[in-house]
Automatic annotation (TrEMBL), chain A:
Native source organism of the sequence: Kribbella albertanoniae
Source organism, top-level taxon: Bacteria
InterPro entries xref list: AAA+_ATPase, ABC_transporter-like_ATP-bd, ABC_transporter-like_CS, ABC_transpr_LolD-like, MacB-like_ATP-bd, P-loop_NTPase
Protein name: ABC transporter ATP-binding protein
GO cellular component: membrane protein complex; plasma membrane
Record-annotated ABC transporter domain positions: 8-245
Entry-linked PROSITE patterns: ABC_TRANSPORTER_1, ABC_TRANSPORTER_2
UniProtKB/TrEMBL annotation, chain B:
Ranges of residues in domain MacB-like periplasmic core: 17-228, 481-677
Pfam families for this protein: FtsX, MacB_PCD
Top-level taxon: Bacteria
UniProt keyword annotations, A-Z: Cell membrane, Membrane, Transmembrane, Transmembrane helix
Protein name: ABC transporter permease
Amino acid sequence: MPTRTPAVQATALTKIYGTGDARVIALDGVTVDFHRGQFTAIMGPSGSGKSTLMHCVAGLDRPDLGAIRIGDAELGELSDDQLTALRRDRVGFIFQAFNLLPTLTALENITLPFDLAGRPPDQTAVDRVVDVVRLRDRLGHRPSQLSGGQQQRVAVARALVTNPEVVFADEPTGSLDSAASTELLGFLRRCVDEFEQTVVMVTHEPSAAAFADRVLFLTDGRLVDELTAPTADRVLDLMKSLEKVTS
Amino acid sequence: MLKAMIRDLVAHKSRVVMTLLAIAVGVAAMVAAWLISDSTATALSAQRSRTDVGIAVQRIDSDAALTVAQSKQLADLPGVRGVSVVAVGRAGLVGADGKLVPGETVPEYAGTNWSRTSRFELTEGRAPAKAGEVVLRDAEAAKGQLRVGTRVRILLADAKVDTPVVVGLFAYRSLGPRSDPQLGSDPVPAVAYDARTATKVLGDDVERIELTVVPGADSTALTAAADRITGPGFRASTGETLAAASAREAADGAKDLRLALLPAAAVALLVGMFVIANTFSILVTQRTRQFALLRAVGAYRRQIRFSTLVEALLLGSAGGAVGVACGIGLAALLLPLMNSDGRIPLAGVPVAVLLGLGIGLLVTVTAAWSAARRAAGISPMAALRLDHSTPRAQGRRQTIIGAVAVAVSVVVIGLTASPSAENAARIVSLLAALVGVVGVLLLAPVLAGFCLRPLLGLVARRSSPALRLAVRNAVRDPRRTAATGTAITIGLALICALGVLSATLLSLVGSTVRENVPAATTIVQPAAGGEAVLDASTLELVRRLPEVSTAAGSRDVVADISYRGGQTVRRVSAIEPHALGTVFTPDLVSGVADLRQGAVVSKNQADMLGLRLGDELTVTFDPAHQVVTKVAGIYDATELQAAIFVDVAAVPERTRSRLSLIYATGPDPVAAKAALDRTFAVRPDVEVIDRDALVTRLQDVQRVGFAVLYAMFAVAVIIAVFGVVNTLILSVTERTREIGIARAVGAGTDLIRRSIAWESLVISTFGAVLGVFVGLGVGAVLQHAMLGQHLADLTVPWLVIVLGLVGVIIAATAAAAWPAARAARTDPLRAIASG
C-alpha cells in the first residue's frame, strides 16, 4: 500500500486519568498518522488505551499533552465551538450503541448534522449514503422499529453523509451478531474502496480488524506493533504473542 | 434537533403532565388573585358613577347638624336647581330568622330617606309612600330572606321598634368614597322610608345635601358659598371631585386586595418553580446520552441549552394557558362567594391572560435555566458510557453556602432577639430568618443524607422488602430527594410559621383579656360587630336593672394625639372612671388606674410613643373638642386592645352616646348576666356575652384573617405534591430496567407498587418534617418581630402541625398511586431488553 498524506496526525499524545493511587496513564506519548483513504483498525486488550486514543484523536476528549491535526486543523488551538463544528462537518462517528436519537426517523437521524448546522441536506450525498447502506425502504422508521444491524447502518449513513475527512468507529460491531457485523464492515470497506473515505476503527475482534488495511496494536497506552494487509489469523497470532509479553 | 425535543415531549406525556399542572396551579392562583382584585375594584368604581349631583354638601363631623334655614339658603344659591336632603338614622334590620341582618353599613347609619334621585334604583316593588311602608336594599333583603309584601322588624334608636311592610327592594348607588376623612362618606343604607316617615322614625340627622345645578354654573363659587352657609362641620364638593375620590378609593382597595392575594400566589409560584426546576434537572439527567450524542455529532453547547429552554418555553406556555383558563374559572367561581352582593362581573381578563402567560413562561424558563446550563455542559464523551445514570457531584459549595447562611441567620436573630428591640432590629431579624430558610434549603441534600441513612440501617434489619427498597432509593440520590421534598418544606414551613404567629396571637389575646377583664364582668356589645355602636339608651337600660350594680361604657374613637415626641392618630377609649378596678381591671405596670388624674395607657403604646408617667397628652376628637391630660397609669396589654383610656367626661356629647362596649356586673354576677340576657333577648342588635365569649369573639376575628392565608399556602403544598408525583414518575422511568430485573427475579407487582408508595412517603415526610422545624423557627422570629415577644414565648400550633403532617402523608400516599401503578406494570422482558 503506497504511503499517502495523512488525514489525521497525532503527536506524542498523553492522557492521564485520576490522581494518586487511582492515577492511570491511558495514553503514554502515542504518535500516529492515519492515512487518507485508508481503513485503520486499533486493537489492544481492554484498558490498553485504544478507546482513549480514538476519543482524543476524534476531538471528543482533549489529551493532557501532545497535538492532533485533522486536515489543516490543529485541534488544541480550537475553541469548543470550533471543535464542535469540526466534529459536525469534517468527522463522522459510529459508536457501539446508542447512535441514534430515538424520537427521530432514520432519515432525520441521517441528516442530523445538516439540521444542526442549519443547512438543507445535500440531497446527492444523502441518496448516495442511503444507497450504500441499503436503507431506502426504512427511512421513515424510528430506531425502535429497526433491528440492531439496521440501526448501525443508519449510524454509518449519518457518519458518511457530510463527506467527512475521517470516520471514527468505536467498536461498531460490538452489539451485532456476526452476519450483521460482516455486512456493516463490508459497508465501511466499500466506502474506503469506492469513495476514498478514511476510516479509523477501534475493535477487539480480529475478524473485524481483518477488514482494515492496517492494524495498530496498543498496550498500556503505547503503540507496540503494526500490521498491514491483515488477516484474522495473523491478527489473532499477534494478539496472543502480545498477551504473552504483557502477562 | 428541536424536532427531536418536541417529539420527546409528545412521546413522554406523563413526564410533562405534572410539570404542566405545577405551572398551571401556580399561574391559576396568580390569575385568580388578579382577577378577583381587579373585578372587585371595577365593580366598586362602576357602582359609583352618579352624574346627577352637581355639588354635595357632606357632613364630615358627626356632631354637626344642619338647620332648616341653612338648607333653604343652600336652595336659594344662584345656579342651584334642586336640593335633595340625605338623612340617616339607626335602623337595625331583623332577618326572617330573628337575627340582625349583617349589612354593608353599621345599624346606626343604615336607615335613610327615600328620594327620587339616582341614589336609589328600584329593583322590585314600588317606592315607599307613607308610614308603615319601607323599602330594603336587595343585598340585605336577600341575606335576611325578607321578601316584598312581608312585615319586617326594624330596630330604631332609643330601643324603639318599627314593623313596617316591605313594599320594594332597591339597589343603592353611592356618591363619593365610602370613607374619606376629608370628603366625608356615603354610608350604604339597608332601609329607606319615605321622606316624611323617615323624619319621624329615624330623626332628622342630615348626612348630606345634594344640589343639582343649572348647566354652566360656576361650581367653584357655589362650593365656596355652600361652605360659608354650612360652617366647618360640613364640606361641599363637586360631583366630579367625589367621583374622582371614589375611583381613587376603589383603586386603593383593589391595590390592598392585590397586595394581600398576590404574595400568597407568588409563594405558590415559587413552590411551582422548585417542582419545575427539579423536573428539568431529572429530564436532563435522563437524556444525558442523547445530549452527549448530539454534542458528539456536532451540536454546539448553545444549541443544547437553547433546546432545553425551548422545551421550557413550550411547557411554560402550555401550563400558562391551562393556568389562565383555570384561574379565570376559579375567579368566576370565587367572586360570588367573596362578595355577598354577587353581581360582580369579571374584569381585567386581557391583562390577567397576559400576566398569567408571561409569568408562566418566566417562571418555567427561570426554573429550567440551571438544568439547561447543565445539559449544555454535558461532555460528548458521556454518550459512550454505558451506564447513563452517573451520580451527580455533591455540591460542596452549596453545602458551605448553606451552612454559612444558617450560622449567620442564627447569630443575627440571637442579637436582635430582645423584645424591646427597635423596628429596624425586628426587620433585620425577619430578614435573617429568611436567610436562614434559604440556608436550610441549600443544606437539604446533606440533611436528607443525614436523616435517611440511619433510617436505612433501621429498616434493613426488620421490615418489608418494599420499605427497604424505597428507603434505599430515597437515599441513593439525596439531592433529588431533597429537591423534591423541599417543595413540600416551603409550603409546610409557611403554614407552620403562620400557625405559630396565629397561635401566639390568639393566646396573647386570650391572656390579655383575661387579665384585664374580671370573670364576673358581663359584656354587652353590638351584634353587628365591627364599627357598630350602641346608643345611650342601652347603657341606661343596663343601669336600671336592679341586678346590675356597676355598668360602664367604652366609647372607642379614633383621635389625633399630640405628645412630647410628636403627633399621631390612635384609637382612644372613653370610659367612666369608676369602671377601672370594678368591671375593667387593667394590669397596671406603673402609676394609678384613676382616669380623673389622667389617661391610662397600655405599655406597648407607651413604649411605641415614648410616653412616661406624667407626660402631657393632647387628645383632639374634632376641631372643637380638645382635651389636655397626662399619663396617669401604664398597663399591660396587646396591640389589639384599645390602648389609651380617658375620662368619658372629657369627650364630646355625641361621642359619649356612641358605645362600643358596655361592661356590667352586680353583687351576684350570675344574676346580673341572667338579667341582661333577659333584657336583651328581644334585641337582636345587642349581644350579651361573658368574658370567655369575648375572648372567643376577638380570637375569631383573627382566625378569619389567618384562614385565608392558610388556604393560600395550602395551594403551595398541593403544588409540591404534584412535584412528588412528577419525581416518582421520572424515577420510575429511570429505573425501568432495575424494576424489570426485580420483577424478573421474582418481585411481585404488589411489592413494586408498595415500594414506590413508601418512597413517596419517605420523601414527603422528610420534606414535611423539615418544613415543620423551619416553620417553627420562622414562626418564633415572626411572633417576636410582630408581637414584640421573646423568641421562646411562642405557642406551638400542635393542631396545625398534626393536620399538616397528616395531610402531607395522605397526599403523598395518593400521589404515589399513579407512578406506583406504572412501575408495577413494567414488563420484565422489555425492561431488560431496553438497554
